[in-house]
Design brief:
9-stranded mixed sheet; about 25% strand; about 290 residues; 9 helices; two-stranded antiparallel ribbon; Spore Coat Polysaccharide Biosynthesis Protein SpsA, Chain A; alpha/beta
Length: about 290
Amino acid sequence: MKYRSPTKAIITDAGFASRYLPITKTIPKAMLPIGAKPIMQLVVEECVEAGIEEIIVVATPEGKPIYEDYFNNAITKIKKQLHSQGKDDRYEAVAKVLNFPKVTVIEQDQSYPYGNGSPIASARKYIQDDEAFVVLYSDDVVFGSSDVKTLVNAYAEHPEAKAIIIAQEMPREVLNKYGIIKLADEAKMTLDNIVEKPKIEDAPSNLTSYGRYLLTPEVFDYLKPNNTGLDNELWTVDAITKMAEHGEVIVEKTRGEWMTTGDPKNYFLAHLKYVMDNEGYADEVKAIVEKY
């Protein structure tokens, strides 16, 4: 079956983020700032650049009202105060957020087991049976290009694909830290499977898989509560591997640079890169970094 091109995106931020405690007991991890924006906004902007029309954010019960406020609260009182002070330009950043495509925030279904596949399964009712869709993990940020746009364009070229996933080439010495792609056909760039954190000498390639996927509704056949894998978790890559057994899953290389914000060290490095590439005070930051 051929599916309609994606117009919807599922973005997940439904984990405990225990490596960020205590701050994540109060705010979702993807609301941590990069520059003056939260991580989540960078991920949403990637979708907007690709023409996505509807975004479903899957959050924790505590995170849901925070995201709803961020994407919908017009802060009218502050807007009026800025106007009275002649600082209307400072509200432009808020107006941009309010003008994003439809953002629906839902809670992860607590009946599902722990795992990164559960937030996707929780959004099942928002996906029609005849449409492909994209999935983004909010702790993965991509600089310099929209992976979502790459996925949508690739699907136009491969409408028969069961799924399309994004990969980034990584140095050999870090291959044991990530999910590494084994290709079924190198010429066609089709997936065989994803090997989670292999020994460096056993890595089947230098292609790292991360949280950017174009999926078809067939994935929901495998994202079932009883299909848990490693550590009794429900894994998206397990479902994608199953799909590859029944059809082609295409691997596309990112046109940008992927960085994870999944832990404090890598979050800092991603934040630093964003500041150095985008902020007017980059030279001052560079001077401080060189000093220390």
